[in-house]
Structure formats: C-alpha cells, structure tokens
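Lab notebook, design round three. We kept the backbone fixed and only want residue identities now. Task for the bench partner: fill in a sequence for the structure below.
Input structure tokens:
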C-alpha cells in the first residue's frame, strides 16, 4: 500500500527540528524502519515528516564524567546508528552491545538508530531491554527545555512512550562500573525476526557476591518489564559458584510480572512464558561471568 501524502522537512539544527515538530501533525523520522511500514499501512497520517538525518549533533558515543569525577557514564547520541555503536565497541555496556547486534540484519543496523529504536517502542525490540536492565537515562528536549526520564518510565505500551509530540530524544546515558557485567539473550521468532522473548541482565559482583541485579524482558509484555522475582533470588548469590542460584532464579522469571503477557497470532502467551526462563538464565549467566572477569572499564 502507498503511504498518505505529507510534507517533508529536513532541518539542519536541533532548534530548527524542534520548530518543525511544533507544527500540528508533524512527526520525526530517524532510521525509518518502524515509521515507513506504519505509513504504508496507513496507520500514521502525518501532516509533515521531519527528517532528523541532518542533525549531526545527535550522533556519537563518548564517556562522560559526572559528580565531580566520582562516576562515569556512557553517552550515546540518539541518532547514532546501531552499526556505529557496534563499531565504537565501548567497554562496560556488553548488554547494550549484545542487544544491538540482535537488531535486524546488517542493512537495518546501518540505517537504524539507537534512539529511534527506543522511541518506536515496539514491544519486541531488543535495545529497550538493555537500557532498562542497564539503568539508563533517556534525555529529551522540547519547547519547555530538557528533561531526563529513567528507562523504566519511558515506554508505556505498544508503540507508546512518555515523549511528547514536540519533543526529541537526544541521547541515552548508562552508568559504568568496574565491578559490573551485563548481557542480553533472546529467542528469535523465525518468521518475523523479532524477539519472541528477550532478556537483559546487569549485575555487580563485589567481594564475590552478586549485588544490585537488574533483569528486564522484552517481547513478554506490551512494554519492557523488570523481572523482580529473578532479581530477588540473585541478590547476594555466590558469584564463584553461581550455576544453581542462577537456574533457581531463572525458573521464577514469570513471577511478579506486573503486566499481562502478550498474546498474538505470532507467539502465544504460554509459549512466551516457557521461553522466558531459558533466556533469563543465559543472560544472567553471561552477565555474572563478565562481571567476575572484568578488570576495569575503559572506552
């Protein structure tokens, strides 16, 4: 099907982009892998498509120091392509890199953007799991100024977020720690290429003990969810002999999930529940192994 008629603008500055988005019916275009199919299906009928491709200021990967040098974070520009993030290969965010490698194929990763993936809020997208487990912050700018949203509060449903129509996601930042490890594992649906279920995990290992575990799933519900039962079981586990603890924790992955499990013609809800423990075990096992083996964080 052909998309509806619309005006097209390609601003060359952030201020110009915000002005364009302030017009009624304007919507942003980043990589386009989500928006273009929606236009063709006539599920979006914009007055103007605002192409963000000219905003070089929203690209790049860098380590930033905050709190007077006390902490470090990795900052990823929202228009950084998946391929550019992988080429940068920053240390300390293995879970994010795992999730980015899982996105589509090489052609999609060359065009698709990290921020676009998050803003599209597809229930089975990979990167939102890694940002939620990674305790990321999403930075937005709009007519009323800047604001920061924790990853866990950004996506609210299927293709729904807290981003206002006249706001732009500008960058994503994640904490870096020399004692942390993270990973992502998913079960890919063979016909769609999306995750039937995907799980990201981030843990700290201090004095041989797992602390501050964060485990998040996508594909399971309409928005990314924390797996609270897994986190509870992992907290305080012996990182030197974690196999039994991780397996026990993974078996409880479906407990205390606050949202309803998705049910559609692609993957039944019961199948998603059956896949969840295996993905959780794989992600947590890799995250713990990486935390134990890590000697420091360097970008």
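Proposed sequence:
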């Amino acid at each position: 099907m052909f998309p509806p008629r619309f005006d097209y603008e390609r601003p060359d500055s952030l201020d110009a982009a915000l002005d364009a988005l302030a017009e009624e019916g304007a919507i942003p275009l980043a990589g386009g892998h989500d928006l273009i199919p929606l236009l063709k299906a006539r599920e979006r009928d914009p007055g103007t498509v605002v192409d963000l491709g000219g905003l070089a200021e929203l690209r790049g990967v860098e380590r930033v120091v905050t709190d007077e040098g006390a902490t470090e974070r990795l900052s990823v520009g929202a228009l950084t392509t998946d391929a550019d993030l992988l080429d940068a290969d920053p240390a300390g965010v293995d879970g994010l890199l795992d999730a980015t490698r899982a996105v589509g194929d090489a052609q999609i990763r060359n065009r698709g953007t990290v921020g676009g993936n998050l803003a599209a809020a597809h229930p089975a997208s990979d990167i939102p799991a890694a940002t939620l487990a990674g305790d990321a912050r999403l930075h937005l700018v709009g007519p009323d100024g800047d604001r920061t949203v924790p990853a866990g509060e950004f996506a609210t449903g299927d293709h729904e977020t807290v981003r206002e129509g006249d706001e732009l996601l500008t960058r994503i930042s994640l904490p870096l720690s020399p004692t942390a490890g993270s990973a992502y594992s998913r079960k890919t649906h063979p016909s769609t290429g999306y995750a039937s279920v995907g799980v990201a995990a981030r843990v700290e290992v201090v004095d041989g003990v797992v602390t501050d575990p964060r485990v998040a799933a996508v594909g399971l519900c309409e928005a990314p969810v924390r797996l609270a039962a897994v986190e509870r079981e992992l907290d305080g586990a012996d990182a030197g002999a974690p196999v039994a603890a991780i397996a026990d924790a993974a078996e409880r992955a479906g407990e205390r999930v606050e949202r309803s499990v998705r049910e559609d013609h692609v993957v039944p809800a019961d199948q998603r529940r059956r896949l969840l423990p295996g993905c959780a075990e794989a992600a947590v096992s890799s995250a713990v192994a990486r935390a134990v083996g890590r000697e420091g964080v360097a970008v």
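Keep this in mind before ordering anything: The longest helix spans residues 269-293.
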